[in-house]
Amino acid sequence: MILYVTAGLFLSFLAIPLLGWLLALPGRRRSLEALATRRLDAAVPAKAKPAPPVPASLRERLRETQEALVGRLSVLLRGRSLDAALLDDLEALLFTADLGVATASNLLETVRSEASGASAERVRQVLREAILEKLRKVEPEGPPLALPTSPFVVLVIGVNGSGKTTTIGKLAARYRAAGHSVLLGAADTYRAAAAEQLEVWAQRADCELVRGAAGGDPAAVAFDTVKAAVARGTDVVLIDTAGRLQTRGDLMAELGKISRVLGREIEGAPHETLLVLDSNTGQNAISQARLFAEATPITALALTKLDGTAKGGVLVGLADEFGIPVRYVGIGESVEDLRDFSAEEFVEALFWTDASTDESPKADGAAQ
Ligand SMILES: Nc1nc2c(ncn2[C@@H]2O[C@H](COP(=O)(O)OP(=O)(O)OP(=O)(O)O)[C@@H](O)[C@H]2O)c(=O)[nH]1
Ligand SMILES: [Mg+2]
Question: Which of 189, 251, 239 minimizes the C-alpha distance to 209?
């Protein structure tokens, strides 16, 4: 009897660790598999990163620009190869696609030198690559919404109605969604309704706002805003300014003053001066960029209203002429319609037509 009990106890001591080992087996197998995959990954060189999928909304919103540039190009190229007559037609197309004269000439020259006598498909490919190369140069470095310093001060400028306040509202919402504290500065003191408009966005984004007296000094509001941000330990400050014509010297000089006041309060501020350009203005946006850049150093561009315009080609001209990083593109009026600019994504959206059919999206009815 004693012998049976001893043997039973001995067997159960053996059974417990055995049971534990069996239960841990799936987890152990998973970690072994992970180890094997890691080793395999290390042994196999990483493949080139595939192009990011283009969100249907971006394609859809860029449709008019797509048609004005690549849609017309597809029709032009159909069944032809690059000869003198096609070059003439291409010249006419590029010069009327809101790219700006310098960029259009440059693209034409690239096609002439790289695709002489080549097929339609090759011409299309050369143009695509040339546009992509120009746009890659203005892709912002670093991750989106990066905050290299605190408070990170962004001064937002541009002509009347370009979309400054809306862009600030959308940006505030994005920063808030990423968990950052945001303070808005209503330095557009010209229009009584301007601060109210910004206030609505502040409520939507759940952030605070500093405003001054109507008709007051915009630089003073900017100063009060950064002072409050420092006191409160705010992460991001977005300063709205009144729209101004790029040809009004006095108003342009005011931007320099706001910038200097910010820099006096916080070293290096404004850390970003964002010029907001309405794509509908086409080549005028190029002249806006030139004159604003003369008034104050521009560190980033936002191209708004790319939805509903055929003039989005101006983005390529701006990239080519100024090389200023394009941080955002606006493709609609709601909060989620402010996208980080990606050269690859933009070019994919422009050239998304199935090249083998050489049809524009309208022609083949392949719209999403
Ligand atoms: N479709 C579309 N509309 C936009 C976009 N961005 C702004 N808007 C609209 O453009 C109009 C002007 O926008 P605001 O943000 O008030 O422009 P603003 O530059 O602040 O104007 P001012 O303060 O008067 O100089 C508004 O009706 C916005 O809804 C965009 O990306 N797409
Ligand atoms: Mg405004």
Answer: 239
Centre of ligand 2 to C-alpha 168, Å, is: 9
Structure tokens at 301: 């561009």
Q: Hey, which of 333, 334, 335, 340 would you mutate to test ligand 1's pocket, going by the most ligand atoms within 8 Å of its Cβ?
A: 333
Compute CA distances 334 → 141, 273, 302, whole Å.
26, 23, 15
Under a CB-based contact definition with an 8 Å cutoff, are residues 337 and 170 in contact?
Answer: yes
213: Cβ contacts below 8 Å, ≥ 6 apart: 189
Q: What pLDDT, in 10s, does the model give residues 200-224?
A: 999 999 999 999 988 999 999 999 9
pLDDT band at 353 (very low <50, low <70, confident <90, very high): low
List C-alpha distances in Å: 330 to 16, 76, 241, 333.
Answer: 64, 30, 18, 8
Q: Which positions ≥6 away from 228 have C-beta within 8 Å?
A: 183, 210, 234
Q: Which atom of ligand 1 is nearest to the CA of 332?
A: 32
